Write the structure tokens for this entry.
Amino acid sequence: MASVPTDLENAYYSSIKELKEGDIVKGKIVSVNPKEVMVDVGYKAEGRIHRQEFEGLDIASLVDIEVYVENVEDEEGSIILSFRRAREMQGWRTLETDYKEGDLIEGFITRKVKGGYMVDIIGVEGFLPQSLSAFKNIADEEVIGSNNKFFFQIAKMNRSKGNFILSRKDAIRMEREINRKKVWEEIETGKIMKGRVKSVTNFGAFVDLGSVDGLLHIADMSWKKITHPSEMVAVGDEISVMVLGFDREKGKISLGLKQTTPDPWKEIDQKYLVASVVKGRITNIQNYGVFVELEKGIEGLVHISEVSWTKKFINLHETFAIGDTIEAKVIGVEAAERKISLSAKQLEKDPWEEIESSVEVDSTVKGKVAGYGDGCAYMELENGLEGVIYNEDISWTKRVSRAQEILKRGTAHDVKVLGIDRSNRRVILGIKQLLNDPWPEIQTRYPIGTAVNGEVVKVTNFGVFVKLEEGLEGLVFSGEISKELMEGLKPKDKLDVTIIKIDPGSAKIGLSAKADGRSAPAEAS
């Protein structure tokens, strides 16, 4: 006799779902193996789905899914289900209801096939021709898989013919246009926007704000001075910029990077008081001075005239190095001009305040030739002071027109202190004064009318320079020598001359070659 089902058995049978082929039901993934995915759909047995139906999907992220019932009970008593078909049927319903050809829709590429790619669009498999893919020179791993989602344009869609063609190339154009409209609708002066640096030029950088480019000028990149935009940005950088201005009709947008941070120059004159001592890092060295970064965006200039009390000729590139830390005194602040003037020398006492204690007139000192001026040479003395030697104080007997012909830069010499020029902060020096004045003796040896056989040193259009003895020359003016004789002379020729004038004050000896003319053409040995 058949047994009567108990209440527990009745409850068990009532909990089992009624399934039939063609149904779409909800299920829960309970296990996964290399070949199959097992799904609990509330039936007396678990359903099986081929693993390949999940190609391109992250199964671990899927728990509750909808499946299509293909067979309620196969030869082994299992339910055969299809995840792909359920998605495809629901996907087609959504496509036919909500989309049309030309619309954008999101999906991901499942695999590469001959002539293009297969794309999963809400469960429906579409074909993306290579010519419409826009994936040239892009690695497959950057394209294929559910983690790489893209928008596609529906090029053709016909379920009955199984025709579903997509275009990524046209989708990109649509995305750009959508983004472009969105940018222009939302843009306003003062707004902070994110963008990507598209290109860098000498005058600035172009920033992609989302299918719309804006210009970030070099002047609006940093509160501090920069020489090239590459100091601040590089192609591909993601940056936040402020909209400074725009023109919809011309499609132009002006951007600012420095405006996204507070202006460090605001109330700068209250922060850096005149006469205060500051410390900073050298960021730039020019011939006219040294730039010192006091804080981010704030630089001061130590002008070359504020480097030393005593040195006139300073090679700043030899004295300083970029990156060095130095101290300086603030001597001026011009907030409107964004300038801070600094001084290194004013941290030390001015030696000219007590110059007499360090330099004594008529004393002999040692100095090094540092440079040249008009009719003089400059020397750096051992105590660091600047001295000047005028041409007339170099030699008793030589007429010096250019000091550099006798005093070579960098050479050291003993010199005599002749005086102190406070107004120009210079020590007046002389070299010839270290020797006795030879002119009284010269006048004795060469009285007016003395005949001398000298050596031609130089022939000019106004006369001939003749060496009378070592270190002593005279000049035969063109009026004191015949034209024929003068034209035939050359250096080292011998020439008979007569002393006609001696001027010790100007170190000049006047000669004449009229009386005796040129001697026999004997050359100097």
Notes: The radius of gyration is 48 Å. The helical segments are 7-15, 83-98, 168-186, 268-271, 316-319, 439-445, 483-488. Residues 168-186 form the longest helix (19 residues).
